């Protein structure tokens, strides 16, 4: 009986150990990360960008006040578009969470590039068509070899800019497409009718 008890205890321990230590990258909390990257974005404060059309530039570099070797673990930099607070109000699905695995602030990836120590990173980005109309700023995370955020930097909230989604245009394209397809059905019927009459004459 005692041996059974021991075996069961061992089994429970093995199961627990497997569960607890499954490969998962370490949790990262924004409030715990050093603000070590200087990030700029080319849109002027309040500038309106159009999805699918407008291009902007983002740059990042290690802040000069960081001690030497602060970036030793940086492997790549991930740049994202983040909802400004004004665009998060009453929208649970855009909510900020300090736990970056649960954070919904920065949902739109702009780019991910290898981190180049000692030089400025830069990317040109065309606003994707699926970016919702909202106010945004830009954040860059430094990621370590496991893909975990280890530092970040972002543009000032006061410099946030607007994205206007192409959805409005899509609606008018849909209307036009609807009109043209209705027209094609009508003309098909019309020519069918003419052909039939020819045959019958
Ligand atoms: C670098 O970091 C310092 C301290 O956090 C900050 O005051 C300064 O504005 C940063 N430099 C730039 C260019 O953002």
From TrEMBL:
Residues 1-17 form the signal peptide. GO terms for molecular function: nitrate transmembrane transporter activity. The keyword Transmembrane helix applies. It comes from the Eukaryota. One of its GO terms (biological process) is nitrate assimilation. The chain crosses the membrane at residues 175-194. It holds the Pfam family NAR2. Keywords: Cell membrane, Membrane, Nitrate assimilation, Signal, Transmembrane, Transmembrane helix. GO terms for cellular component: plasma membrane. InterPro entries: Transptr_NO3_Nar2. PANTHER family: HIGH-AFFINITY NITRATE TRANSPORTER 3.1, HIGH-AFFINITY NITRATE TRANSPORTER 3.2. Belongs to the NAR2 family. Involved in nitrate transport. This is High-affinity nitrate transporter. The gene is LOC100831058.
């Amino acid at each position: 009986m005692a041996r059974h008890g021991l075996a069961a205890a061992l089994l429970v321990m093995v199961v627990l150990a497997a569960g607890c230590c499954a490969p998962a990258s370490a949790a990262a909390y924004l409030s715990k990360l050093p603000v070590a990257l200087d990030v700029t974005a080319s849109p002027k404060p309040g500038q309106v960008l159009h999805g699918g059309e407008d291009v902007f530039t983002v740059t990042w570099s290690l802040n000069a006040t960081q001690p030497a070797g602060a970036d030793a673990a940086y492997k790549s930099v991930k740049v994202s578009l983040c909802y400004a607070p004004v665009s998060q109000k009453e929208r649970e699905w855009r909510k900020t969470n300090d736990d970056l695995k649960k954070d919904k602030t920065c949902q739109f990836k702009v780019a991910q590039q290898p981190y180049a120590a000692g030089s400025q990173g830069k990317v040109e980005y065309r606003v994707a068509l699926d970016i919702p109309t909202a106010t945004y700023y830009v954040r860059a995370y430094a990621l370590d070899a496991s893909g975990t955020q280890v530092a970040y930097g972002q543009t000032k909230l006061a410099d946030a800019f607007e994205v206007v989604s192409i959805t409005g245009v899509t609606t008018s394209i849909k209307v036009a497409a609807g009109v043209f397809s209705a027209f094609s059905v009508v003309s098909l019927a019309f020519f069918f009718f003419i052909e039939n009459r020819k045959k019958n004459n």
